Amino acid sequence: MRKALLIFALATVAGVASAQNVATVNGKPIPKSREDAWLKFAEQQGQKDSPQLREMVKKELIRREILLEDATKRGIVDKPDVKFQLDLQRQNVIIQALMRDVVEKNPVTEAQIKAEYDKQKAAAGAKEYRARHILVENEADAKAVIDQLKKGAKFDELAKQKSKDPGSAQRGGDLDWAGPDGFVKPFSGAMVALQKGQYTQTPVQTQFGWHVIQLDDVRDPQFPPLDKVQPQIREMLQQQRVQAYVDSLEKKAVVK
Fold it and tell me: How many whole angstroms separate alpha carbon 127 and alpha carbon 219?
């Protein structure tokens, strides 16, 4: 009687253990917890839980177990380069989880997003300017450009012919809309002093060379509404918090 009960108990335990496994590959069980983790990851990627998905995950887990077993037999897992990659991936996963934890425990508030938005909006300045420029290597060349403009030459055509700025030359020197802070100081100072349609009568020197500047237009800043940039601001503030956290750890670390 006792023997029968023992056999029944062992069979029951084995049945429970089997229910906790997805499958057994060459005697090695694949735990159901691994399947659950895969299903959760698949759902996070937008897939819906279904019998088909579960069957696909099961087949993938079995396939991987077979391949890992063979890789172990071949000594692949003991190769230095494989060990390095495994260690690197482990570090990456842990560090990324740490960064997520820092963000989750220090959430960015709506008030902080609004404050940053107002700060950026104020920094945009009172006006935006659309200017063109012709960049040359020396003052004499810049004066020659101004002389040609005075004789009726078109600014955009001269820019295409003579400007050394590869980013704007083929656009006739057009620098698109920007606030004064988008330019280096000597350039912005000369630009904001112009009236619409005017160009600088004397060359402007910066660290890039010598400029002749024409102001095409001026407008009020075209700043996007808060709801359009809220996700970007949130991400930026989160990155700042993560960086501050990393900096604080580096400062406290004892490195010899």
Answer: 6
Which CATH number characterizes residue 73's domain? 1.10.8
How many domains are contained in the chain? Answer: 2
Q: What is the pLDDT of residue 182?
A: 87
Question: If 0-12 CB within 10 Å is exposed, 13-18 middle and 19+ buried, where does residue 205 land?
Answer: middle
Q: Give the whole-angstrom CA distance, residue 10 versus residue 94.
A: 39
Q: State the chain's mean pLDDT as an integer.
A: 91
Judge whether 67 lies within some domain. Answer: yes
pLDDT at 140 over 90: yes
CA distance 158 to 27: 79
Residue 227 falls within a domain, yes or no? no
Which pLDDT belongs to residue 7? 46
Structural domain of 24: 20-78
Cross-strand pairs, 133: 213
Looking at the domain assignment, is residue 145 inside a domain? yes
Instruction: Give a yes or no: residue 47 inside a domain.
Output: yes
Q: Whose CA is closest to 149, among 129, 132, 168? A: 132
Same-domain status, 136 and 207: yes
Pair 64, 148 in one domain: no
Find, among 39, 221, 48, the residue nearest to 130 by Cα.
Answer: 221
